[in-house]
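Design review, sub-item: ligand-bound model
Attendees: FS, YL, KQ
YL presented the inputs for the NDP complex:
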Amino acid sequence: MGYIEPAPIKDKENPLESMMQRFDKAVELLGITEEMYNILKVPRKQVIVGLPVTLDNGRIHTFEGYRVIHSTILGPGKGGIRFDPDVNLDEVRALAAWMTWKCAVVDIPYGGAKGGVACDPRSMSAGEIERLMRAYTTAMLDVFGPDQDIPAPDMGTGSREMAWLMDEYSKAKGMTIQGVVTGKPLVLGGSLGRTEATGRGVMVSALAAMEKLRLNPYKATAAVQGFGNVGSYAAALLRERGVKVLAVSDITGVYYNENGLDIEDALAYRTRNNGILEGYKEAEVLPAEELFRLPVDVLVPAAKEDVITRKNAADIQARLIVEGANGPTSALADDIINDKGIMVVPDILANAGGVTVSYFEWVQNRIGYKWTLERINRRTDRIMKDAFNHVYETSQKYNVSLRIAAYVVAIDKVASTYKYRGGY
Ligand SMILES: NC(=O)C1=CN([C@@H]2O[C@H](COP(=O)(O)OP(=O)(O)OC[C@H]3O[C@@H](n4cnc5c(N)ncnc54)[C@H](OP(=O)(O)O)[C@@H]3O)[C@@H](O)[C@H]2O)C=CC1
Ligand SMILES: O=C(O)CCC(=O)C(=O)O
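KQ shared the predicted structure:
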C-alpha cells in the first residue's frame, strides 16, 4: 500500500519488521486510511531507563531497561516483562504491538505494552534479580498503575518477580495495590490458573485447529521448543488430551523419544536438576536445529522469536504450527509455510490464554473476590475457542492465512474503537 517502504529482504530477521509486514498486509485488506495507519503504527510511549544495581561481588552494574506502551485505546497498557540478554528497544516495540493485537483478538479491555531488561537471569543470584526488579519498578513508578499499565511475567520472569514488583510499587504509593501487576503468587492476589494459562490456551487452540485439519489428537504427535512456563504446560496439557509428545527442548538441547516422552517425569527431572533438562536419560539428545525437522504432526515453538526462518521453514514436516512464543516465525518464512499447506495458529491468538487469565486476575483484585479454578478454566477455554472461530471465519472470508486473519480482526477492532471515540 506504500505508506512505508517495504522492509528489505535481509538474512537477519527482526521481530519489528516481521510484525510490520503482517500489519501492512492486514491494513491493506481493511482499506485503512493513511492517518489511521500512522496512529496504529507508532507506539504511544517508549521509556528507556538506566538501572544501577549492586551485584553480590560489591560492584555496581548498570542495566538498561525498557517499557513500551503501544496503545491504550481499548484500556490500560498490558504486557509482560522480559529478562533476557537479547532484550532491545526494537524487540520490546514489536512485543508491545503484539500485545495490542492479542488483547483485541481475544476481546479483553486492554491496550498493549511490554517491558524488558537486557540481563542474563541464568547467571544472576536471586538477590541480584530482586534488586534489579525493584530498581526497574522504581524507575517505572509513573508508568505502571492498575488503570494505566499493568505488567506481568514473560521470558525470564515469573510470580516471584511480580511479587517484588507489587511490593516495591505498593510501598512507594503507601498502600497495597494488587491490581498493578498480574501473574502474582496466589497469596498476594494472584489468580488460580494463571501459571498454566498460556500453555492451556496453546492446547485449546491446537485442538481447535486439529479439528479443522481432521487430526485425531490420540493419533497425533508433537514437538515443543522451550520447556519453560509456556512450553512445559503446553506439552503436559497436549499429552493429557492424547497427543504423543515426541520431543521437548530447552537451551541445553532437544530431548527426543520416538515412543513419546513422559512429560510429568521430564518436569520432575527439570525441577530436581536446577531447572534444565541436561542429563535427562529417558530421551535421546538431538542438536537444536533438528527440532523443526522432526516427523511430527504438530510443532509448538514456545521459546523465542525468529526461530522459524526462511532458512529452515522448508524442512518442516508438521501439518500444524501453534505459536506459544511471541514472534517465533519470521515474516520471510510465511510464504514458504503457506505454500507447504501448513496451518499456523499465530502467536497473537495461540498464546493469548496468559493475558486472558491475567485479565481475570485483575478483575478479581478489583472486586476483592476469588474465583474457582473451574470457573477460570471454563471462561478461558470459551474465550480461546470463540477467538479461534472468529479468526478462522475471517481467514475464510478474506482467503488469507490465520495469521493475517488475526491481524485483520485485531486492527479492525482497534481502528473502529478510534473512530467511535473520535479523539486521537
Ligand atoms: N509467560 C507467559 O505467560 C507468556 C509467554 N509468552 C511467550 O512465550 C515464550 C516463552 O516464554 P516463557 O515460557 O514465559 O519463558 P520461560 O523463561 O519460562 O521459558 C523459556 C524457555 O525457552 C527456552 N529457551 C530459551 N532460548 C532457547 C533456545 N534458543 N532454544 C530452545 N529453548 C530455548 C528456555 O530454556 P532454559 O530454561 O534452558 O533457559 C526455557 O525452557 C516467549 O516468547 C514469551 O514472550 C507468550 C504469552 C504469555
Ligand atoms: O499476562 C499478561 O498480562 C501478558 C503476558 C504476555 O506478556 C504475553 O502475552 O506476551
